[in-house]
Amino acid sequence: MATTPAALSTPDISAPTEHGHVTNTGLSNEKLAMWAFLGSECLLFGALISTYFLYRGKSLSGPTPEEIYDIPYTSVSSFVLLMSSLTMVLALAAIQRADYRRLRVWLMATALLGASFIAGQVYEFTSFIREGLTIKTNLFGSSFFVLTGFHGVHVTLGIIMLLSLWNLSLRGKLTQDRTEVVEIAGLYWHFVDVVWIIIFTVIYLIPI
Amino acid sequence: MATVLEPTATPAPVVVDPGVLKRPKNPTGVWSWMTTVDHKRIGILYGVTAFVFFLLGGIEALLIRLQLAQPNGTVLSADAYNQVFTMHGTTMIFLVVMPMSAAFFNYLVPLQIGARDVAFPRLNAFSYWTFLLGGIFIYSSFIFGGAPNGGWFGYAPNTSITYSPGHNIDYWVIGLLILGIASTVGAVNLIVTMLNMRAPGMTLMRMPIFTWMTLISSFLILFAMPVITVALFLLMFDRSFGSNFFNAEAGGNPVLWQHLFWLFGHPEVYILILPAMGMVSEIMPVFARKPLFGYPVMVISAVAIGFMGWGVWVHHMFAVGLGPVAVSAFSISTMFIAVPTGVKIFNWIGTLWGGSLKFTTPMLFAVGFVAMFTIGGLSGVTHAVSPHDRQQTDTYYVVAHFHYVLFGGALFGIMGGIYYWWPKIFGWLLDDRLGKLNFWTWLIGFNLAFAPMHLIGLQGMPRRIYTYDDDLGLNALNMMSTVGAFVIALSTLVFLYNVWLSRKRHVAAGPDPWDARTLEWATASPPPDYNFAEVPIVHSVDELWHRKYTEDEDGRLVRLAAKGEAAQQTAAEVERAAGHGDHATEHDDDHGHGIHLPSPSYYPLVAAVGIMVLGYGMVYGRDAGVNYLLAGLGALILFVALYAWGMEPSAEPEEPEDGSTAESPRPDVPALAGADAPGALGTGVAPNGEDAAGRTDAEGA
Q1: pTM of the model as a whole
Q2: Closest approach of chain A CAs to the CA of B644, in angstroms?
Q3: CA B241 – CA B236 distance, rounded (Å)
Q4: What does residue B690 show for φ and ψ, rounded to 5 degrees?
Q5: Who has greater pLDDT, B4 or B207?
Q6: How many CB contacts within 8 angstroms connect chain A with chain B?
Q7: Which chain B residue's Cα is nearest to A137?
C-alpha cells in the first residue's frame, strides 16, 4: 500500500520536541508520566482532605484545632515552602542557560527551604504532642497527623530528589541537554507546594 | 525511557556506570525471565501467574461450594469459611482478573499501536514483580497464622483491631497496598505508551478497540487506586498506630470506609470488565468478517462508562440509610449507566448481524460473553431500584449478579482472548474441538452454578454465612450450584489438557491465522523481540484488513493479499530480501543501524522484594517495635534498588557507529531500514535521554 502524504501529515503524528524526541503528544514520555502520576496524587490528597473535612469539629474530646494551632508560626513555614517554588524555577532557568553553578545553588536552596519546612513540621508535631494531641487522642489528632504527615513525606521525597540532582550536577552529569530532568522534578515540587496551599487554607485558616 | 539497546543480550562494549549489580546478559534461562523488560515476556509472566492464582481462587470456590452443597455442612469451620470466601473474592479480583487483563495489556498494546515496547520497560517489570510478590505476600498469611477473613470489601469497623485482633486483616491491608502500587505504576506506564508511542498515522480514533478499552481502564486504575490506598492507610493507622478513623467510640464514622471503598470499588468493576469488552470487540469482527459496528460509538460509550462509573458507587450502600435524596440520585445515575452498556450490547449484535459467522472457540466465548453479560447487566439494573436492592442486599442474588458480570463477563471475554491470541503469543494454535468442549462445559457449568443463586437469594439466603438449615427449601438449588462449580472445574481441566495436547501437536499458526484486522497480526507469531522490523504507517482502523482487502465499485470485498502475506517480514527475512519494502514503512532514514531495545535489569525485582520486606515489617510492627526494623530494611532495599536503577542506563550504550556494528552478533538481527529514525523507534527517545529516563522512573515509582 502506498504511503500517502496525507497520512504522514496527520497532526497526530508527533512533532519533535525541543530535544528532538518524537512522541504523539509532543511531550516526552517522562514528563507525561509525571503528569499522570500527579493526577493520581490529586485523588490521594483529595481523599485525605475529604477525610479531614468529614471529621472537622466531630472530635468528642480536646484538644481542638483552635486551642492548639499556632497560625503565625505555620504561616511562616508555609511561606518558606512557597519560596522554595521560586528557587525551583530559578534552578530550571539556570540549567536552561547552562549556568551550572547557579543551578546547584538554587537546587540546594530549594532543598534547604524544603528541609526548613520539614523541620518546622517536626517542631509543630512535637509541640502538639507535648500539649496532649497525638494520633490517638481524638478524630482531629488522627486526621491532622495523617494528612499533614502524608504531605511531609511527599516533601521529604522531593528533597531527596533535589539532593540527587544536586549531586549529579556536581559530578557533571546534569548538563543542559537534560534540562527536562530538572523540569520534571520541578513539576513534582510545585505540585507538593500547591497541595500545601490547599491544606493550609482548609485546615488552618478556614474557621470551623 | 530510552530505547536504545540491543535486543540481544550480547555484551556491550562500553559499560558506563555499571551500578551495584552487573547487567544481566543471558538471553535464555530463569534469570533472563527474572530480569526481562520485554513487554511480551512480562505479559506472559502476568498471564501464567494470574492463571495459577485462578486455580487457587477456584479451589477456594470449590471449598465454598462443598461446604454449601448440603445443609449444615461440615467441610469448613465458620472461621475457615470466612478466610476462604475472603480470599476467593480478593484473589479473583486483584490476582486474577486485573492481572489477566494486565497480561493482555502488556502483550498486545505495543503490538497493536506499532511500538517496540512500552514507554518504561523496567517500570513494567517492576509492576509485575510487585504484583507477584504482593500476591505471594497475601497468600503467605495462610502459613503465618490465618488468611484475611473480613470479606474482599473489608468493612471497618469489623476489620478494626477490636473485632479482628489477628494479623489476618493486616495481611489484607498491606497486601492490597502493595498490589495498588503495581496497578498504579502499570497504569501510568500504559497511559504514556498509548498516548505517546502510537505508530505514525495512528490517531486516537484509529486505535484498535482493545487498546481504547485499555486506555480507559488504565485511567480508571490511575484515579481509583489512590482512593482505596487512602482507605487502606486509614485502616492501617487505626490498627497499627491507634488512630480513630473508624472507631465509633471516638466519634469515627464507619460509613467513611464504605464511601472510600466503593468510590474505588465501582470504577473497579469497570476496570475488570472494560478489557474483556475490548477483547470481545476484537474477536467478533474477525469471525463475523465485518468491521466492528459503530466503532466511534463503542469508544464514546466506553468513555461515558469511564466517567459515569464515578457517580454510582452509593448503589453498593443503599441499605446503609443515607436518606432518600442520596438514594434517589444514585438510583437514577445507576439506571443511566446501563445506557452506554446497552449501546455496546447492541453494537455487538450489529457486528454479528449479516456477517458470515465462523463459530470458532474464541467466537463462541465472545458470543457467550454478550449473552451472559447481558443477564448480569439486567440483574444489575434491578439493583438500581433501591427498594428491590434493599430486599437483595447481602443475599445470594447479589452473588449471582456479580458472577454473571465478572465470570459471565470478564472471564468469558478473557477465555475468548486466550484462545484468540494464543497463536500470536506462542506460534501454535489451540485445538478447536477441545476448545469447543471447553466452551460448552464452561457455559453449562457456569449457568448451573450461578443461575440458581438468583432464586436462592430471592428466597433470602444470606451471603457470607457458612451454613444453612435443612428446612429452608434451599437444599436442591444449593446442590445444583455445587454441581455447576465442579463442571467449571472440569472445564478448566479440559483447557489445561488442550494446552498440553496442542503444544505436543504444535500446529503452526503463521503470522495471521484468523485473517484478522489489527496490527499485532502484521508481524510473526510469536513476534520477534523488536515486534516490527519496520514500524508500520497506519491509514485506518483495521489497518491490516485494509492491507489485505479492498472493495470494488459494488462494495464487494476484493482480496489484495493472502492472509499472512500482508504481515511484515522478520528482520532476517528482510535481510535476505534486502532492499524490498512492500508496504508503507518509513524509509526516511539512513540504513545501517540495528534496532536497539532496553536492556534487562535486576533492579525492578530487587525493588519489589524491598516492598515485600517492608510489608512484612508493617504487618508485625505492632507486635513489637523492633519489627519495624524489618520495615526499615525493606525501605532501604527499595531505596537502594531505585537509586541503582536511576543510575543504570535503561539501555546499554550503542556500539560505536564506525561501521563495526555491521557485524551483528546475532544473525537474525541485521541492520534495518529506518530503525534509528526517532519516529521509527516506537519507543523513540534520543540516546541522550537514557539516564534521564532511568532517574525519572525511580522517582515516579
Answers
A1: 0.88
A2: 12
A3: 8
A4: -55, -60
A5: B207
A6: 184
A7: B243
Buried b (16+ CB within 10 A) or exposed e, B281-318: bbbbbbbbebebbbbebbbebbebbbebbbebbbbbbb
**Do the domain assignments include residue B524?**
no
ω before A63 within 30° of 0 (cis)?
A: yes
Q: What residues in A contact B696, CB-CB < 8 Å?
A: 30, 33-34, 181, 184
In tens, the pLDDT along B339-370 reads 999 999 999 999 999 999 999 999 999 999 99
Instruction: Please report the pLDDT score of residue B332 as a whole number.
Output: 94
**How many residues are given for chain A?**
208
Average pLDDT over residues B65-75: 95
pLDDT band, very low/low/confident/very high, at B145 (cuts 50, 70, 90): confident
Strand partners for B551: B557
One DSSP character per residue, B510-527 reads -S-TT---SGGGGS-SSP
A21 touches B: beta carbon within 8 Å: yes
On whether residue A102 sits in a domain, the answer given is yes
Give the whole-angstrom CA distance, residue B397 versus residue B380: 10
Asked, for residue A95, whether it belongs to a domain, the answer is yes
How many domains, in total, are found in chain B? 1
- Helices then strands, counting H and E runs in chain B, come out as 21, 2
Q: In which band, very low, low, confident or very high, does the pLDDT at B572 lie, cut at 50, 70 and 90?
A: low
Mean pLDDT of A46-74: 91
CATH assignment at residue A184: 1.20.120.80
With beta carbons under 8 A apart, name residues in chain A contacting B192: 29, 32-33, 36
Q: How confident is the model at residue B20 (pLDDT cuts 50, 70, 90)?
A: low
Cβ-in-10-Å burial (0-12, 13-18, 19+) of B435 comes to buried
**Which site among B685, B690, B697 would you substitute to test the A interface, given the most A Cβ atoms closer than 10 Å to its Cβ?**
B685
Mean pLDDT of B450-467: 95
Is the pLDDT at A7 greater than 50, yes or no? no
Domain that holds residue A168: 31-205
H helices of B289-360, where?
295-308, 324-352
Shortest alpha-carbon distance between residue A202 and chain B (Å): 19
Lowest mean pLDDT among B140-144, B448-452, B539-543, B685-689: B685-689
CA-nearest of B296, B288, B292 to B352 is B288
- Of residues B384, B367, B376, the one with CA closest to residue B406: B376
Give mean pLDDT, residues A86-95. 97
Compute and round to an integer the Cα radius of gyration of chain B: 26
Residue B421: exposed, middle, or buried by beta-carbon count in 10 A (0-12, 13-18, 19+)? buried
Alpha-helical segments (H) within chain A: 5-8, 29-55, 65-68, 71-96, 100-130, 139-170, 179-199
**Cα-based distances in Å from B393 to B159, B409, B552:** 20, 21, 57
* Domain residue limits at B213: 39-505
In chain B, pLDDT over 90 holds for what percent of residues? 75
ipTM of the complex: 0.90
A93 is a domain residue: yes
Asked whether residue B395 is domain-assigned, the answer is yes
Residue of A nearest to B218 (CA): A36
Provide the CATH number for the domain around residue B385.
1.20.210.10
Q: What is the mean pLDDT of residues B676-694?
A: 36
Whole-angstrom Cα distance, residue A185 to residue A169?
14
Does A16 touch chain B if contact means CB atoms closer than 8 Å?
yes
- Supply φ then ψ for residue B5, to 5 degrees: -155, 155
Is B201 among the domain residues? yes
Higher pLDDT, B652 or B133: B133
Output the average pLDDT for chain B.
87
